């Protein structure tokens, strides 16, 4: 034990899947082919019009800090995008450009939490949420959402877990790892429930563009008191550019700006210039083609996994994940994921990475690889599991 490391670090765990990824790299170095269904980012590269805008920005010397809240033109472009895609008006002043959704999460939670405050969230859920809360000396309350409620986090969960210490509720829609999209009614009920108790709802909409049924409603359409997080990472295919945004209620604008100045100074300048091109028709057209391709992959993979014996109670409406119960094969998701990697070279994420309470008998399959690779992976699974 290194006693110079802060105590909070004892509570901050690595992703188990990283261990599997390291092993996958070793196997690949030995000449094995691995089918990657563990990766939580698009396999597509950033659309060319965005790349070109980034290169042009670098060439023309756009390498200095921007204002802390982001380039005014980008904040305006994001506001215009809400207007053209969802028909809602959001003042650009309420939009703070951040280093990824990760930066937005840190800002949002740092703006809201005092030490000892609790934040309610779904279990399974995106693991970093609880570590951000821990970092800020708050307490994450991970509430199991089960297949009985179609993995939805609802106002009933709030009613049964709210205490005087509760400050906020953090939900993702669509969610990682379940792909669950909250309906407009569910979102509205969550909002009522949180706001009537004097708390704040934080909605992570990072997968919002990647929805395969009815169009998703942004939480911004329902309340101006909600914090909304989004990012250029997933839908826009810009994970490595590290760019996202946070929409805050009007009364938080000045505090958010002050905090952003101190925490980040600003998000990446070339990335912000590149992102200006993300809302142009040329880029949006490419992104729509990709969304359709993700849907095609989901529609292919899901019934095949069910046929193999994975229990998948819902059809995920968004993101690029299928959360599958593997209890028919194993009660230990990590051991099972390791078996699949070692024996047939199929890499998936063990459900244990997303849960903090119940042991998870689930795997997360990411369809962030080509149809050919998905077919190859399924063939290997079929031969092994049968
Ligand atoms: N929220 C969710 C639900 C995610 O899955 C991720 C990335 N996997 C993030 C936030 C962080 O994304 P980024 O910082 O790349 O925008």
TrEMBL record:
SUPFAM superfamilies: PLP-dependent transferases (SSF53383). It comes from the Bacteria. Residues 34-381 form the Aminotransferase class I/classII large domain. Pfam families: Aminotran_1_2 (PF00155). Its cofactor is pyridoxal 5'-phosphate. GO terms for biological process: amino acid metabolic process. GO terms for molecular function: pyridoxal phosphate binding; transaminase activity. Its EC number is 2.6.1.-. Keywords: Aminotransferase, Pyridoxal phosphate, Transferase. NCBIfam families: PRK07337.1, PRK08960.1. Belongs to the class-I pyridoxal-phosphate-dependent aminotransferase family. This is Aminotransferase. It comes from Nitrosococcus halophilus (strain Nc4).
